Amino acid sequence: MARVKQLADSLKGRGNNEVLTALKAYLMKLNFIVDVYTPGQLNSKIVSNDKFLVLYKKSRRSDRVARLPFFSLNNFQSEIGRWGMMVRLKESSND
Would you give the DSSP letter of residue 44? Predict the structure, then answer.
């Protein structure tokens, strides 16, 4: 996910919301991603009808960065996780 890092770096100096919006828009264009959840969604106290968001909210911890399914083989860090985002992959994606 080098492109995610490049995109985030290109927006350095802009607000977090602008970076998150751009990253989410980029990720949603990928044919194997169904949804991208931002820190705002994951931290929200509002009850959601999205069962995956509910699951991710319950399993998320502020002191743990989600690295899977996207991480670098060089440093095992996740640019998506670094921004506090989580992704939901398409089921049985053979595209």
Answer: -
Select from 49, 34, 47, 45 the least CA-distant residue to 86: 34
Residue with tokens 């991480």: 71
Q: pLDDT, tens digit, for every residue of 74-85? A: 666 778 888 888
pTM of the model: 0.80
Question: How far apart (Å, rounded) are the C-alpha atoms in residues 75 and 40?
Answer: 27
**Contacts with 24 (C-beta within 8 Å, 6 or more apart), sequence order:** 36, 38, 85
Q: Are 54 and 41 in contact (CB under 8 A)?
A: no
Q: If you ran DSSP here, which 8-state letter would residue 34 be given?
A: E
